[in-house]
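Data availability (excerpt). The following record was deposited with the supplementary files.
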Amino acid sequence: MKPILFNTEMVQAILDNRKTQTRRLVKVDLGLADIDENDKDYFYVPNSDGEYHHILEYSKIHIGDILYVRETWARESEYCIYKADLDDWSHLEDLKWRPSIHMPKEDARLFLKVTDVRVERLQDITEKGAMAEGVDWTDNRCYENNGWKPSFYDPDSGGSPVFTDGFIGIWDEIYANKGFGWDDNPWVWVIEFERCEK
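Predicted structure:
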């Protein structure tokens, strides 16, 4: 069982059964700039000894792994409270929230079984992939390029959401100032998962 971090917005998407994929930066230099991008199922890359290995051997997460979700949390006497449930716990304003990275496994409530792992360029994401990333159709970022947003009184007035635009906004909030924004088109691990029990 391995840990995986998600911010509060993405934890809520998992709880709402909207998120079944996550993209994570390929953080090691795998020589990917020199490989054939059209041959994604057969990526072989050199290691420091010049030997070639399949790229999935470098992934820390593999098909069949069980991941426990680390999320922002707090302790109230013997109870564990999760920030993703803030609407339900808004009367507890004085709680001391703890960063997700410090959540121990025994306090995790969400468990994910990995069903697929692959590598691709960030900009290869499709609308279906952006939806699987948990982008909410009500997110303003989904309507930035079509000029208007649905209103509460007329939900059809805004046209169709562009989930990829919503995903770009979410990604860039996290990675753009670190040099790995959408326009940089970095290599990413694409991890697909389904919720499971411990």
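Summary of structural features: The helical segments are 8-15, 127-132, 163-175.
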